[in-house]
């Protein structure tokens, strides 16, 4: 007689607070982690985007270039670029290392508030 395989447990959310980040960005509109969880981005109502090492609770860089609050952000798969969108109806592509704007996309009819990097051809 064969016994059925045990069902794997569903992933559970943490039950206790591990750490907090003092962002000082006003209201935080989004928090996004990179693919391997070693970095996170916070998007603030103060028009800034901040890059953190969440394990050490260290601020690595602040990116400023939006005219209104930053609503969402995403990092590229190789961690070399960031993309952010704001209430100013712009989408900004950033160089992570230098903090410089690579390109600013303007002219959207409405506010863009969800971002994702994709793979070409997929």
TrEMBL record:
Main location: cytoplasm
Single GO cellular component term: cytoplasm
InterPro entries: WD40/YVTN_repeat-like_dom_sf, WD40_repeat_CS, WD40_repeat_dom_sf, WD40_rpt, WD_repeat_MORG1
WD repeats: 21-62, 63-104
Entry-linked SMART domains: WD40
Domain of life: Eukaryota
Protein name (Swiss-Prot/TrEMBL): WD repeat domain-containing protein 83
Keywords noted in UniProt: Cytoplasm, Repeat, WD repeat
Family stated for the protein in its record: Belongs to the WD repeat MORG1 family.
GO BP, one annotated term: mRNA splicing, via spliceosome
Matching SUPFAM superfamilies: WD40 repeat-like (SSF50978)
Compartments in which it is found: Cytoplasm
Pfam families with a match to the protein in the record: WD40
């Amino acid at each position: 007689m064969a016994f059925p395989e045990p069902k794997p447990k569903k992933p559970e959310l943490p039950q206790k607070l591990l750490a907090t980040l003092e962002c000082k960005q006003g209201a935080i509109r989004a928090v996004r982690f990179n693919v391997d969880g070693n970095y996170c981005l916070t998007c603030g109502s103060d028009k800034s985007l901040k890059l953190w090492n969440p394990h050490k609770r260290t601020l690595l860089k602040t990116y400023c270039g939006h005219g209104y609050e930053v609503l969402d952000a995403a990092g590229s798969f190789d961690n070399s670029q960031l993309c952010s969108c704001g209430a100013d109806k712009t989408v900004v592509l950033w160089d992570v290392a230098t903090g410089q704007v690579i390109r600013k996309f303007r002219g959207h009819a409405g506010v863009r508030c969800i971002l994702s990097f994709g793979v070409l051809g997929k």
